[in-house]
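Colleagues,

For the teaching module next term, I've prepared a clean inverse folding example: a structure given as tokens, and then the sequence designed for it. I'd like students to try predicting residues themselves before seeing the answer, so please don't circulate the second half yet.
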């Protein structure tokens, strides 16, 4: 083999060797790079994994902390909610501004009784004017509805009996005057010794008797209406008011005691109710009656209760007067509700104090921090008060007037808490 050929073969071998080395190195470098990259990736992945674990650990810890904090907060909130349940916190200034009235509990239950009654003229403000003597009605001066004054004439009666009374009174007065003159003359004669003292004493007795007879005759005439010499008697009204009914007509005849007219003062009226005798015994003066009439409802105060001898069924009457304002006209029908108090220690509160919250009867008990809704067992209602059978001890003070404002505020607070 010549020299040139050997050189060419050496060059080719060198080129193959270089090519093989370059590929191996490249291959080795690529693997190393990949290995290095993988290692780096593993390192990064390990680090990331560690970071993730750290983050997860931190997140778990934070979650646990957050859960605990939230749980603690919720627990505190639940405890606060439980501690504040049913409480309406108000200051004294807010209580006064809202018009809420705080009252103590009362004692003594009671029962309601409905009564029927009417408006009547008050005692002393009505009169049934009757004829004092029998006679003929000469003139009727008034008619129904006529207003009259006390002493104003209603009718004129001509009576022979009255004329006789008048004449008898005048005769008695004359006899008394004659007896007095005799007694005076005997007094003068006794001093002169003409008449004995015994005669003087007898004349004095006759004078006294005549005076007494004259006074009796004058009183009889006055009771008969003070007739004149012709026997005319004027029947007058003893009270001011309005004539109700006139029972006589001109030309008619009346006997002594017959009704001539009724007179009543419409400004002086009272309430009269029919009641069972047992109830009348339980009703004391100054008790309240809630009355319903033609003009609406109003309150009245009892001024008397007693058996009514006019009633055949043994009923009693209860008389009352309104606390304020005028009554309906006399004769108007009315109805009333009266409360008979019981002799016991049952707790009672004003009717406004009992409110219904979630289907339960509650009262708002006043405390230092406001009002707390306290469930109670309500009993009977008697007038403006309600019995409390259970739930209160009796020492509490409760909201009465405007207690519904506390109910509304409590419902508002529960709605906000639920939201």
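(Answer key — instructors only)
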């Amino acid at each position: 083999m010549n020299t040139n050929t050997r050189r060419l073969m050496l060059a080719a071998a060198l080129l193959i060797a270089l090519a093989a080395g370059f590929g191996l190195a490249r291959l080795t470098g690529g693997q190393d790079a990949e290995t290095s990259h993988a290692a780096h990736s593993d390192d990064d992945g390990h680090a990331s994994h560690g970071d993730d674990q750290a983050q997860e650990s931190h997140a778990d810890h934070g979650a646990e902390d957050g859960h605990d904090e939230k749980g603690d907060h919720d627990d505190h909130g639940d405890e606060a909610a439980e501690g504040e349940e049913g409480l309406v916190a108000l200051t004294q200034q807010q209580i006064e501004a809202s018009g809420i009235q705080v009252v103590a509990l009362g004692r003594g239950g009671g029962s309601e009784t409905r009564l029927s009654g009417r408006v009547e003229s008050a005692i002393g403000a009505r009169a049934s004017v009757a004829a004092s003597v029998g006679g003929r009605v000469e003139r009727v001066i008034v008619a129904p509805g006529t207003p009259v004054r006390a002493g104003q004439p209603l009718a004129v009666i001509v009576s022979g009996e009255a004329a006789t009374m008048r004449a008898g009174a005048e005769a008695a007065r004359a006899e008394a005057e004659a007896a007095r003159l005799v007694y005076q003359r005997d007094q003068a004669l006794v001093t002169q010794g003409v008449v004995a003292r015994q005669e003087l004493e007898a004349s004095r007795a006759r004078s006294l008797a005549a005076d007494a007879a004259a006074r009796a005759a004058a009183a009889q005439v006055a009771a008969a209406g003070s007739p004149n010499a012709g026997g005319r008697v004027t029947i007058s009204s003893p009270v001011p008011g309005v004539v109700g009914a006139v029972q006589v007509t001109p030309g008619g005849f009346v006997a002594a005691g017959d009704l001539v007219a009724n007179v009543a003062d419409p400004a002086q009226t009272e309430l009269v109710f029919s009641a069972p005798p047992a109830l009348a015994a339980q009703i004391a003066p100054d008790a309240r009656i809630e009355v319903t009439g033609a003009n609406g409802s109003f309150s009245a105060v009892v001024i008397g209760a007693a058996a009514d001898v006019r009633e055949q069924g043994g009923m009693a009457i209860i008389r009352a007067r309104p606390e304020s304002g005028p009554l309906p006209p006399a004769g108007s029908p009315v109805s009333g509700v009266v409360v008979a108090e019981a002799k016991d220690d049952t707790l009672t509160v004003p009717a406004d104090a009992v409110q219904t919250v979630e289907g339960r009867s509650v009262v708002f008990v006043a405390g230092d921090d406001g009002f707390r809704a306290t469930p109670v067992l309500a009993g009977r209602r008697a007038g403006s008060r309600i019995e409390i059978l259970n739930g209160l001890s009796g020492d509490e003070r409760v909201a009465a007037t405007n207690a519904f404002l506390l109910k509304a505020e409590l419902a508002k607070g529960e709605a906000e808490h639920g939201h």
